[in-house]
Amino acid sequence: MKTVQSWKKMRKISMLAGGAVCALSLQAVQAQDDQITYNTHVAKILNENCVVCHQAGGIGPMQLTTFEQVRPWAPLIQMRVANREMPPYAYDHGIGIQDLQADWRLDQDEIDTVVAWVNAGSPLGDADIVPPVAEVRDVNAWNFAPQYGEPNLIIASTPLDIPANGNDMWSKEYVPSGLAADRCIKAIQVKPRGDARAVVHHANSSVFVENEFGELERYGQLTEYAMGKWGEVPSEGVCRTLPANSQVLWDIHMFPGGVGATAQGEMIKDNVVEIGVWFHEEGYEKTAYKQDLSLYGLREGYEADELIVPPHGYLMTQGFHSFDHPVRIDSFQPHGHLRMNAASLEVFYPETGRTEQISQISNWSATWHHSHLYEPDAAPLLPAGAVLVIKQWYDNTANNPNNPDPDQWVYGGSRTGDEMSHAWIAVTHLDEDGFEKMVAERKAKEERAVAGND
């Protein structure tokens, strides 16, 4: 199965102006190999990984597009990079699956380069060496446009004014998809327009179709958005379907005044959230496995008021889910609010009693949601009966920098000040033949890799 191109590479392509070729002087760079400078080493790292947010109008609190802008922030950049706080992609190293698409984490040699540069006094380097120019992209542009062009379909919510302060707000409405035939989704992104980025807590979208009696019935989940989420690209060879003549139910949660570094603290007029959808060619579904995205909570019948975090206290939750057929787990996106600070995904195999850790996020933040998309050859293959174990941790103490008030009892609920405990997981549904085929293909690839290393 062909692997989807790494999103990190996608972001790098979109951030380099027109794919411009680096204008470095080869001789000058070779002469300075023993000296790390902005022009020879660091600018490339920042331009490819940081400028996407740290530019004029971006969500980063400062601009990092030139040496003059970067130099005053060098010690802070060093600290954030060394602690793996930036780029903001909280996914633990050394635990579980590490082969991810859309992986924003810096390589260790990139981290070492930035640290060494700052320790050396953050030198500019030879002025004759011109680093690649970072593209200052339109922050309101679609994230996948550089790869796929403009979306094939855009579904927008009704404009709504969000006040500067007040209680949480919700908007629910049906919007016709306008689609004339069933189509498989290649990529999908939810994008609040302009200043709405800071006030839209989440924006879920479900798909409904008419039954034989003319009544709307839920078909499934289209996508999910929470603050900071880049978008989703289903793996090659799977079909997440948007059916013909469907209705999309928006469920948008907004927080007046905003949350995080980009909060405006003022009224946002005509707040609109859009879904951009890119489709595979017609007929793609004939050779693809079915994939869906679903919310997996603590358990069936779980009541929100069972989740209680005491003042100055902690909580851990566990949820379990199994399938009566083989599946492949394609992505993992834990969800909570301001007190949640960690999450993990495990698989328990009842036949052997073995538990396998798949993913761990030990420094989770509600201001940066990521759908951790596993490379297809690394994505967990689960036989029928295997159990997903979802764990999440909550910190309601003053040590949690996101905690607005550690004196409060925190309950399960939909408000920003409440808590949630679930994960969004994309699952490819297999039959026994498909499962055995994938297992055999992986085994053969591993044997070829081992033979090639001999």
Question: What does this 3D model show about the protein?
Answer:
This protein folds into 3 domains: 7-119, no CATH class; 148-287, Jelly Rolls (Sandwich); 288-454, Jelly Rolls, CATH 2.60.120. The chain contains 8 helices and 23 strands. The chain has helices at residues 7-15, 26-31, 38-49, 67-70, 74-82, 108-119, 145-148, 432-453, and strands at 100-101, 153-156, 160-162, 169-176, 183-192, 200-210, 216-226, 238-239, 241-242, 247-254, 268-271, 273-279, 289-296, 308-309, 314-322, 327-335, 340-349, 354-361, 372-374, 381-382, 387-395, 410-411, 422-429. Strands 1, 8, 13, 16, 19, 20 and 23 form a 7-stranded mixed beta sheet that branches. Helix 3 packs across helix 6 and helix 5 packs antiparallel against helix 6 (108-119). It is globular, with a radius of gyration of 23 Å. The model is unreliable at 1-32 (pLDDT under 50).
Topology:
Layout: H1 7-15, H2 26-31, H3 38-49, H4 67-70, H5 74-82, E1 100-101, H6 108-119, H7 145-148, E2 153-156, E3 160-162, E4 169-176, E5 183-192, E6 200-210, E7 216-226, E8 238-239, E9 241-242, E10 247-254, E11 268-271, E12 273-279, E13 289-296, E14 308-309, E15 314-322, E16 327-335, E17 340-349, E18 354-361, E19 372-374, E20 381-382, E21 387-395, E22 410-411, E23 422-429, H8 432-453
